[in-house]
Design brief:
single chain; alpha/beta; TIM Barrel; 8-stranded parallel β-barrel; two-stranded antiparallel sheet; about 35% helix; globular
Length: about 475
């Protein structure tokens, strides 16, 4: 009998009132406007752990959405990812009230230095007892660059060149600077760490010069679990070499399957195995005991969705001001230095080549471009299982709608249905996040990071 594939689940959220489903903070039952309250996040973490979620994936962006209508006013009015607080500080607070839940934290490496980022994630991995992941992004907003004293972002593909070297530096720091037994904590001998087992990293490259010892001792995972969400051709190549978990936004199952297959093929080309990469697709779920109740709930939520907020978000994502388009003018693909994969999804890689701004507006429900799954627990489970089977994804990033109800409904209604079908775990495995996902707390030696371990040699996927 064939073993059923176990569905993996992350919640998908952001340290702000409006994340993906714009405008729903206005709903009388929504609590997302309390995002500045630590209790809001700790309660969410407890609920997710009750539902045996693998993790909470926290998005982030630097800068304001100021492309649509030539300024940030629309995004500010809608609360579209602004105001926005730092996601990094949330993980320790949520880890304090949970034991197993993982945390995937988005940090933009374009505006970081690897020496400092490496310490921050080692610290987070220590404080969460090995439950931290890093969502690697290169940014897409000129407003972020201006806020940091520059003019505009570097070209899209050039940012990935920087990212490749950035990863080399942090791998050297995380994997090669301290040997596993360097820290002794020997009170009698007065030796905390053995200097002979602590190594200086010397990196002199095109973008970075680092001559230093990693500031942190080895954490439970050393390198955090590596997440990545770029679906452009260059982004997929980066994901194939580095990412363990990829977040895709396929408009349909066939398109998603192609993206997943391409990323895994690129992973194999980089000396890895297809199973080294787990793929997650974003979903919005509206569930209730009956279909009629689910539809009624959807219509209720939809009345609060902000189409303008969604357009402000999308315009900034792709670097095109859609307010300048005639409503029935076809949307054309134009390569920008923003998020090319999002524009490709409604142009050259969409089965429907006739997308217009009018059609875009009409497709936005719940203030989001992500089509929701609406129905009973059985209907939702059917659709999730279809995605697993037909798109070859491993799991889902559950996008919040009206919170906390959307998470509570999923945990109370959908999780038991998935468990009854043998599609979802009934208990957590012990160990760090990477152990839960891949069976070991450390990256395999065949991953590029493994080549930078002290005393390592280049290995192949067969080893």
């Amino acid at each position: 009998m064939t073993q059923k594939k176990q569905i993996r689940l992350n919640a998908f959220d952001m340290n702000c009132a409006g994340h993906i489903c714009h405008g729903l903070w206005r709903h009388p039952d929504d609590g997302s406007a309390r995002y500045t309250d630590v209790d809001h996040w700790q309660n969410l973490a407890v609920t997710l752990e009750r539902g045996l979620f693998d993790g909470l994936f926290l998005a982030d962006v630097l800068g304001l959405y100021d492309v649509y209508k030539g300024g940030p006013e629309t995004a500010l009015l809608a609360g579209a990812q602004s105001p926005l607080n730092d996601p990094v500080v949330l993980a320790p607070a949520m880890a304090a009230v949970t034991k197993h839940l993982g945390f995937g934290i988005t940090v933009n490496l374009t505006h970081e230095h690897p020496y400092l980022l490496a310490r921050r994630f080692s610290t987070l991995d220590h404080l969460t007892k090995g439950r931290i992941g890093w969502n690697i992004v290169t940014g897409y907003l000129d407003s972020a660059v201006r806020g940091l004293g520059g003019d505009r972002l570097a070209p899209h593909d050039d940012r990935y060149d920087v990212a490749d070297e950035f990863m080399e530096v942090v791998y050297k720091l995380w994997e090669g600077s301290w040997e596993d037994d360097a820290v002794l904590r020997d009170r009698a001998a007065g030796i905390f760490a053995d200097p002979a087992k602590v190594h200086r990293i010397r990196h002199h490259g095109r973008f970075f010069d680092v001559d230093a010892i990693h500031l942190s001792e080895p954490s439970p995972q050393r390198t955090p679990v590596l997440y990545q969400a770029g679906s452009s051709d260059r982004g997929r190549r980066f994901a194939g070499e580095h990412a363990e978990c990829v977040f895709i936004n396929g408009q349909n199952k066939a398109q998603a399957r192609d993206i997943v297959a391409d990323i895994r093929a690129k992973a194999v080309a980089a000396g890895r195995r297809p199973e080294d990469v787990k793929a997650f697709v974003g979903v919005v779920v509206i569930v209730a005991p009956t279909e009629a109740e689910a539809r009624e709930k959807f219509e209720d939520y939809d009345r609060f969705g902000s189409v303008e907020g969604a357009l402000a978000h999308f315009s900034a994502s792709v670097g095109i001001d859609f307010s300048t388009y005639d409503p029935d003018e076809p949307i054309r693909f134009v390569k920008t230095d923003a998020n090319n994969s999002h524009l490709e999804a409604v142009t050259k890689k969409s089965p429907d080549k006739t997308w217009t701004v009018r059609k875009l507006r009409e497709s936005i429900r719940l203030g989001s471009r992500t089509p929701p799954i609406v129905g009973t627990p059985a209907q939702v489970a059917d659709e999730l299982a279809a995605w697993i089977e037909q798109a070859d994804v491993d799991g889902f990033n559950l996008i919040r709608s009206v919170t906390p109800a959307c998470i509570e409904d999923f945990v109370d209604l959908v999780v038991p249905e998935l468990q009854n079908r043998g599609l979802y775990k009934t208990a957590y495995e012990e160990g760090p996040l990477r152990t839960k996902l891949f069976g070991s707390p450390r990256l395999p030696a065949r991953h590029r990071a493994g080549t930078f371990r002290h005393g390592s040699r280049l290995v192949t996927a067969a080893e």
